[in-house]
Structure formats: C-alpha cells, structure tokens
Write a structure and sequence with these properties.
heterodimer, A: mainly alpha, about 55% helix, B: alpha+beta, HSP40/DNAj peptide-binding domain, 3 domains, four-stranded mixed β-sheet, three-stranded mixed β-sheet
C-alpha cells in the first residue's frame, strides 16, 4: 500500500504581495484603529492615497505582526516598537554584511 | 517528568525579592524574544522564562514551589509528592499572563493547565493563535522548488482535556524562486481556535543553508570563479556551475581579478521576478615548480613593462 501524502501549498508573501486594510487587519488579528496608529507612528506606510486604495506589502504585514508581539510580550509602546523595528532591520543588514565577508 | 529550576532559568537567587524576579524576567524576556534573538533555541528559552515568571511572581505559587526544597537540579526526574499543594490556593485561579497552553508538563502537573480559564465561558470565542517557524532550505530547493516535511511542536488537547505538546508534521510545497526572509503563509495551520472559532495561521520564514559554492543576496546568486592569469589576459570561454547546471561563460580579454560578470536569469527566479548569477573573477597566480616555469616568469618580467603601483606615486 502506498502512502498518499498531501502537500500543502501556502501563500508566499513576496515582492508582489499587496493586501487591503481589511486583509491586513484579518491577517494580524487587529482592528483598523491599531493600523492607523502604526501608520501615524511611521511603523508602516501604505501605498495609495485614500483608505480605500491602501495597499500593504509583505514587509508591512511582518512589521505589524512583530510590533504586536513586542507590545504584548515585552510591553513596548508604539514609538518603542518603531525604534526596535528599525534597529532590528539595521542589525539584520549588518549581520548580512558580516556574513558576506 | 523533569524538574524545572525556575530560579536558574531567570538567573536569580532562591531568596530573590519579588522586584528582583520581575527585573530578571524582563531582562531574560527581552534577550530571548524570538523576534529579537537569533539563537536557535530562543523561543524555548523565552517560553521557559514566561513559565518561571508565572510561578515565581505569584507568592502562593512560589511558596508551594519552594516547598520541594533547594536540592533539585534542572532536568532531574521528578514526581510531586501526594497532597503537596495542601494549604495553597491557586488551582483554578486562572493565569494573569502568558499562554499556559505552551507550558511544560512540570508546570501543568503542579499548577494545572489553562482549561479552568477557558471552560467557564461558553461565549468565549477566539481565533487560534498564529504560529511562526523558520525553515532552512538549500539553495537548490529555492531554485527548483521542492516539497518538504517539517515538524513543529504544538500543544494538543487530548480526549480528557489535557494539554500536551506533541510533534506535528506537515508536508509543504516550497515554491520555485522563494528567497531568504520571505514567508509562506499556511492558512488554518496554526494553533486551534477556541469556542468553535477557526484556527490560526502558520507562517514559515525561509532561511538558506550555507552553500560551499554559492551565496544568495536577495535574488542574485554570487560565485567566485578562480581563473589563471593567461585566461584573464587573453580571454577564455569557461564552464561555470550555476544552480541550474553548468553554463559557458565568456571571459573578455584583459579582465582583472575582482571583475564581476553577470549571467542573466541564472539566479533565483519566480514567476514574475528574476535574479542573476554574479560571477566574481579571482586571478590565481600559479606557483613556480620547475626551472622552465621560473624562466617564463623571468621572461615576462623582462618583456612586459608594467607597473601596477603607478597609482600609488605622489
């Protein structure tokens, strides 16, 4: 008897990924108000002018999810999250450069 | 079941004050937060610290835990004595923080599991938590696409309502042209929801295995190609490995070491984005092994008027 294996095909969050405000809220389990606050804090910035046109990249999805975890787990406030995320990006870049050497 | 030394996990003395415990926990939590730390076992350490703090921050739980004495060592086989918790009141009190679902068997057998908190409300509905994991794949798998089995540990509720962590294996399609840092979202493959709500999602973040030949930068694949001085000077057509197999590469005459040549489309390509292979030339000077070879170098020295250091003169 051969074993039938089902392989799950996920959704790749890549350069093309764009999601609406509603999608972003659903993906991150937060309400739109929190997303607005994060935009105001400069944690993410949407493409598009009106709220209806807003489109968020896969990087934005990740930043929002990380910010929520930092707030929940370490009680970091929103400006602190913005700072931590920028420093984490910088750290990642430095790690990448030191690996290339 | 293994004994857990909650004091050691937080790095505090057994007679530490509640303030010291709070400070120690915050420090450890910051250090091992999975979004911050790159240590491979950061998540486990972060969870351990949360569990330790759950017990030590609560004077009742701490006093009960302290009753086992100071002679136990981390990881030692352990069974709690019968009625060990007589006189303490914390069972069913619910948790003030953290997710008890992920705590150890040791914690559960002493302080119960999160059930009490979740059972009293039938209207309590919540989507399951998202789960995040990193998977390490080879550059070949990223280039061609692959199918991979991954095993995660996750809390499972058994028939009697007990929560235990079990390994859970998933078979996942790795799409062609995925790159480091990108994530695959598997909808509904996260932790189960409460009160009939849907489960959370699973996010797999891609990391690349170290490769002997290639290294990836976003979609581009870098390779260092050693060549001889005469190949560099005269030009050559050389066989070069790429992730998709060998290709011919033309080295233009008069190439210097460090020159970069681009093989279009030979990097990590997805349906709509393509990457290149960047070949960096490295000129290797052959060692002199015979007298004839020495003469060749001498002849070059005499016949070629060449000063590579002209740029250093003031």
């Amino acid at each position: 008897m051969t074993e039938q294996r089902i392989y799950i095909q996920g959704m790749v969050l890549n350069e093309e990924t764009r999601c609406s405000l509603a999608d972003l809220c659903a993906l991150c389990g937060v309400n739109a108000e929190i997303i607005h606050e994060m935009i105001e804090e400069g944690i993410i910035s949407p493409e598009g002018v009106t709220t209806r046109e807003w489109a968020f990249t896969s990087i934005a999805i990740k930043r929002v999810q990380t910010a929520i975890r930092l707030q929940r787990d370490l009680r970091v406030n929103l400006p602190g999250c913005a700072l931590a995320l920028d420093l984490l990006d910088e750290l990642e870049e430095l790690r990448r450069l030191s690996r290339c050497r | 079941m293994e004994y857990k030394d909650y004091y050691k996990i937080l790095g505090v003395d057994r007679n530490a004050t509640q303030d010291q415990i709070k400070q120690a926990y915050r420090k450890v939590a910051r250090k091992f937060h999975p979004d911050i730390s790159k240590e491979s076992n950061a998540e486990a350490k972060f969870k351990d610290a949360g569990e330790a703090y759950e017990v030590l921050k609560d004077p009742e739980k701490r006093a009960a835990y302290d009753k086992f004495g100071a002679n136990w060592r981390e990881g030692q086989p352990f069974e709690p004595p019968p009625n060990w918790d007589a006189g303490f009141e914390f069972r069913g009190a619910g948790y003030t923080g953290g997710d008890a679902g992920g705590f150890s068997d040791f914690f559960e057998s002493l302080f119960g599991h999160g059930q009490t908190e979740r059972q009293y409300s039938h209207i309590f509905r919540m989507k399951g938590e998202d789960q995040h994991a990193k998977i390490v794949i080879s550059l070949e798998d990223a280039f061609w696409g692959a199918r991979q089995a991954i095993t995660l540990t996750r809390p499972v509720v058994d028939a009697s309502g007990h929560v235990a962590t079990r390994p859970h294996t998933l078979h996942v399609v790795i799409p062609k042209g995925i790159i480091e840092g990108q994530r695959i979202r598997l909808e509904g493959q996260g932790l189960p929801g409460y009160g009939g709500s849907p489960p959370g999602d699973l996010y797999l973040e891609i990391a690349f295995q170290e490769d002997r030949l290639f290294h990836a930068e976003k979609r581009d694949i870098h390779l260092t190609l050693p060549i001889t001085p005469w190949e560099a000077a005269l030009g050559a057509s050389l066989t070069v490995p790429t992730l998709g197999g060998n290709v011919q590469l033309k080295i233009p005459p008069g190439s210097q070491g460090g020159k970069k040549l681009r093989l279009k489309g030979k990097g990590l390509c997805s349906a709509s984005h393509s990457g290149d292979q960047i070949v960096t030339l490295q000129v290797i000077v052959p060692e002199v092994r015979t007298e004839e070879q020495r003469c060749l170098y001498r002849a070059m020295a005499e016949q070629m008027s060449f000063n590579p250091r002209s740029g250093l003169e003031k």
